[in-house]
Amino acid sequence: MNRTRAVVFWTGGIVVVAAFAIAAIIVVSRPWAWSGTLKAAEYSQSQAVPGFDDTTHDVTDRADLTVLQRVLHDDGWHPGDTEHAASGCAGGIATHLRLTLTDGTKTKLTTYLCGGDNDALAKDITQIVSAWRTGTFIGSK
After folding, report:
1. What is the value of pTM for the model shown?
2. Spatial separation of the C-alpha atoms in residues 93 and 46, rounded to whole Å
3. What is the pLDDT of residues 27-83, one digit of tens each?
4. How far apart are CA 87 and CA 66, in angstroms?
C-alpha cells in the first residue's frame, strides 16, 4: 500500500513539473512579449492615388498612443508580427508604423488594407492612422 502511494505521489509530481516546463517553454518561445506600453509611434501611409500624402509623422501624445495600444492589444498583435493582412493590392492603403516601447525597444508594423479585407487589425490601424494623417483623430479625449 505504501509503495502504491509513493508511485502515485511521484507520478503526480512529475506531471506537475512537466506541465510547468511546457508552460514556461510556450511563454519564453514567443518572439517578444507585448508589454503594452508605447512611448512613441512614427507613421506613414501610401496609396497609388495622385496627391496622396505619404509624409512620415511622429506621435507622442499619450491619448493617441493609448488608443493605438488598445487596438494593438485587442486585435491580438505582438511585436514579432511585422506584416499584417494582404501583401498589397491596386488601390489599397499601406500603413507603416515604427513603434517605440517605454523600455526603448523598437519594432515595425506594416498593414495593407484592400477592398474586401476582413482583417480587424489592418482596418483599425488604417482608420487610426488615416485620421492622424488628415487631422481628424480625436484620441480618447
Report:
1. 0.68
2. 6
3. 444 444 455 688 999 999 988 888 888 889 999 889 999 999 888 888 888 777 777
4. 27
Nearest to 43 by CA among 138, 140, 127, 141: 127
Q: Where are the beta strands (DSSP E) in the chain?
A: 38-46, 57-59, 83-85, 93-101, 106-113
In degrees and rounded to multiples of 5, residue 37 shows phi and psi of -125, 115
**Rounded CA separation 96/111 (Å):** 7
Q: 123 or 85: which carries more pLDDT confidence?
A: 123
Q: Are 24 and 8 in contact (CB under 8 A)?
A: no
Between the alpha carbon of residue 138 and those of residues 59, 95, 134, the distances in Å are: 13, 19, 11
**Residue 116, phi-psi category: left (phi > 0), alpha (psi -120 to 50), beta (remainder):** alpha
Q: What is the per-residue pLDDT for 128?
A: 92
Residue 31 DSSP code: S
